[in-house]
Amino acid sequence: MSKKKDFKSLMNNKSKSLLDEEINEVKPGESVVLIPKEDIYSSEQIRKFFDEEYILELSKNMDDIGQIQPIVVTHNDIRGYKIQVGECRWRAANLSDKITHVECLVRDAGTVLAQLSENLHRNDLTPFETGRALELLMEEQGIVENKDLANVVSLSEPRISAFRKAAQCPPYIELAYHNGIIRDVDTVNSLRIAGELSEVETKKLLESPVSRKEAKDLVKSLKASQKELKSAQVDEEQSSLEHQEVANENPSNKADQTKVSGVIPTSQNNGIRISFEGNQGFIDLNGQAESGKIVIVLDASSGKLTVPACEVSVIGYHSLEHVH
């Protein structure tokens, strides 16, 4: 495995620990209890979405190897036990005919999300760790909108958006953050945008410490360059199209295509008279010569000569034979 993948995997595992830390562990005085799956219910206060294929795969795994971790629920109320963490496992259990009971930890309402929120507000977390933890929390809780997540973890929507976008950064930007080259989430996201426009220029900037202004200036410069390039490409395409239209309207009068007033040049008397070293003759249009040379036939000789084009002078046109 490459160093880049090792680094990314390490950071993902660290972020995941924010959700697992002290949440699925059995605390003193607690015990895992088996609760009928039909006695457990999910909150309907937040709009949720779950990957059906993932839930189906999880259900098959639970059938094969059992439940790895308990889910966390609140104490029994009029509806049953409300899920705090582990809704994916509960939904997977509901798809199974073999599983009738779910392993659960019963805790007071709000304690799990309070712990998650506290973890996310720790000062030692990087923007990337926070962003990935938020992504995992949204997946775990089935949360779709940033505004719903904001109510859960007590972060503003703009900050949640910034952290989630930071989690999408390539490893080289995250590594630069860990090396002290960049220091805040806004600079991180500016460099993320810059990297999408030009990875080369972004890596060049990251060779030394980068301020928020420098990151924003790079994005502005790259966007301007990209706009100019697109404009130049459009102008070039338009110019090429216009030239083609002119060529179509005014085709060149090639010697082998031209028929003027019912006359054409013969193969031996093509109409283009030349002078070479004091002798006159004509150009053999059917002749083949390398670049910079032409084939000529002199009046005083029936043989063909290949000579430098620069040594030949055009002296006029020969009278053309009429086509009958």
UniProtKB/TrEMBL annotation:
Cellular-component GO terms for this entry: chromosome
Compositionally biased intervals (Polar residues): 247-266
One matching Pfam family: ParB_N
Disordered as annotated region, ranges: 229-266
SUPFAM superfamilies: KorB DNA-binding domain-like, ParB/Sulfiredoxin
GO molecular function, one term: DNA binding
All residue ranges annotated as the ParB-like N-terminal domain in the record: 33-120
Biological process (GO), any one: chromosome segregation
Family (UniProt): Belongs to the ParB family.
Protein name, as recorded: Chromosome partitioning protein ParB
Organism the protein comes from: Aliivibrio salmonicida (strain LFI1238) (Vibrio salmonicida (strain LFI1238))
